[in-house]
């Protein structure tokens, strides 16, 4: 029998040392893709997310986005009943009725996402067909898309990838040369990036997703993709299939990551070094200064990143290179080499890179290593804290603006705060 947790060397790329990958398969501890609705619905202000799922799905979304109960919600769950699950009722007819009623009540909704879940997949409810039927009835007033947020074989950030991937076929075609930033970033980050690109003379610049889901950016052979999140691999490949080209770069986390990311676009646009340095120098200086406090707190400390958000590889690079942390293990739910090609060579060679999860074995490694900080999913944080380990929930990294120069200090603070708190509590 093949022991899947045995480290295996990977094919080294020409002239580059690649880390050895520990591949594990076993029990996993991650949220499902429905979680993405929490940040996606904040970004796309004309979109509604209708989960077709169970009461469990409704509870997950409601508690993850708890504060939103006071606003007019733009997400809901169409709950599959026992009759639906037993195949005694026509769930398709019922779903059409619910959607039409919802859209009559909510004229502000221009885009409806039907979001599949574990139960809808188990009973093979065809949401693609439902979207087709509803589009025939409702388009152009409303465009209906469908994607899966199910927890079967996914991690929670794949919800965003699946949602954005669903938009790609309906994006208009263009031959225009343009920069397309792919991945959900907070509006404040988008505004900062727009200003920097304008100062660099790079444009037009568009974002996927846009603030209004209806304003789909065009795509075509002149489109250069700058990836803002490492988990949107399927979306990136769908855009490439429509003629776009990926600009390989590290992700814009920290001063170094943001500069390298901007430089990839600047090189493609032929921006000269003098102009690039003049535009980026103030941001770099502010970012470095804002990281000082976290660096003082974390430099020389040891971090273990468990696989959860799919942000682990770029964050390990940031923690090591900008905050001076020593990385014991970087876990990633799956290793999409195309998406992290510029990040892998920047990881410290002594760090273990692990893909997938065998929870018990990984917890044994955490306990043996006794890291100063463990970055992990919510479900693991409390038990590990109870064992005396200091933890940081990785889900906070997708709910908080962390991209770009102005957010570098906040990103450092996310990791420094739990270590500070633990030190204050020391007897
Ligand atoms: S989609 Fe699956 S994993 Fe997610 S809340 Fe629903 S039942 Fe649970």
Fold and architecture overview:
The chain is of the alpha/beta class. The protein has three domains: 7-28 and 291-425, Nitrogenase molybdenum iron protein domain (Rossmann fold); 33-154, Rossmann fold (3-Layer(aba) Sandwich), CATH 3.40.50.1980; 178-274, Rossmann fold (3-Layer(aba) Sandwich). Helices cover 42% and strands 17% of the residues. The chain has helices at 37-43, 55-64, 82-85, 91-105, 118-122, 127-138, 158-167, 187-200, 233-241, 254-268, 273-298, 312-321, 359-369, 378-386, 396-399, 408-425, and strands spanning 7-8, 21-25, 47-53, 75-79, 111-116, 143-148, 178-182, 205-208, 223-227, 245-246, 302-305, 326-332, 352-357, 373-376, 391-393. The strands form three sheets. The chain has a seven-stranded mixed sheet with strand order 1-2-13-12-11-14-15, sandwiched between helices. Strands 4-3-5-6 form a four-stranded parallel sheet, with helices on both faces. Strands 8-7-9-10 form a four-stranded parallel sheet, sandwiched between helices. α12 (312-321) links the parallel β11 and β12 (326-332). α11 (273-298) runs parallel beside α16 (408-425). The longest helix is centred in the C-terminal third of the chain and has 26 residues, at 273-298. The protein is globular. Mean pLDDT is 90; it is low at 1-15. Residues 32, 34, 53-54, 56-57, 60, 117-118, 149-151 line the site of iron/sulfur cluster.
């Amino acid at each position: 029998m093949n022991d899947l947790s045995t480290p295996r060397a990977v094919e080294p790329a020409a002239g580059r040392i690649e880390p050895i990958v520990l591949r594990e398969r076993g029990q996993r501890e991650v949220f499902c893709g429905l979680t993405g609705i929490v940040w996606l619905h904040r970004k796309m202000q004309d979109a509604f997310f209708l989960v077709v799922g169970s009461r469990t799905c409704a509870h997950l979304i409601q508690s993850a986005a708890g504060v939103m109960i006071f606003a007019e919600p733009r997400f809901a769950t169409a709950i599959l009943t026992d009759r639906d699950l037993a195949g005694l009722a026509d769930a398709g007819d019922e779903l059409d009725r619910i959607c039409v009623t919802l859209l009559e009540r909510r004229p502000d909704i221009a885009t409806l996402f039907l979001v599949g879940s574990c139960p809808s997949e188990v009973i093979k409810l065809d949401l693609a067909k439902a979207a087709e039927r509803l589009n025939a009835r409702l388009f152009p007033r409303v465009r209906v898309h469908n994607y899966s947020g199910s927890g079967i074989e996914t991690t929670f950030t794949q919800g965003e990838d699946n949602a954005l991937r669903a938009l790609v076929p309906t994006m208009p075609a263009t031959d225009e040369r343009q920069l397309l930033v792919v991945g959900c970033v907070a509006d404040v980050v988008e505004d900062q990036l727009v200003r920097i690109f304008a100062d660099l003379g790079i444009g037009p610049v568009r974002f996927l997703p846009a603030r209004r889901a209806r304003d789909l950016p065009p795509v075509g052979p002149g489109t250069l993709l700058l990836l803002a999140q490492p988990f949107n691999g399927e979306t990136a490949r769908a855009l490439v299939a429509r003629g776009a080209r990926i600009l390989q770069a590290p992700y814009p986390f920290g001063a170094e990551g943001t500069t390298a990311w901007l430089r990839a676009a600047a090189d493609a646009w032929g921006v000269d070094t003098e102009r690039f340095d003049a535009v980026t120098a103030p941001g770099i200086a502010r970012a470095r200064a804002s990281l000082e406090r976290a660096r003082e707190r974390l430099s020389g400390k040891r971090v273990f990143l468990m696989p959860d958000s799919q942000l682990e590889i770029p964050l390990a690079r940031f923690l090591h290179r900008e905050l001076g942390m020593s990385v014991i293990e970087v876990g990633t739910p799956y290793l999409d080499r195309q998406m992290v090609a510029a990040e892998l060579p920047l990881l410290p060679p002594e760090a273990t890179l692990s893909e997938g999860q065998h929870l018990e074995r990984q917890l044994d490694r955490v306990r043996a290593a006794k890291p100063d900080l463990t970055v992990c999913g919510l479900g693991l944080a409390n038990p590990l804290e109870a064992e005396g380990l200091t933890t940081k929930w990785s889900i906070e990294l997708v709910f908080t603006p962390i991209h770009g120069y102005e957010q570098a200090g906040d990103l450092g603070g996310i990791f420094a705060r739990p270590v500070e708190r633990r030190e204050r509590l020391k007897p």
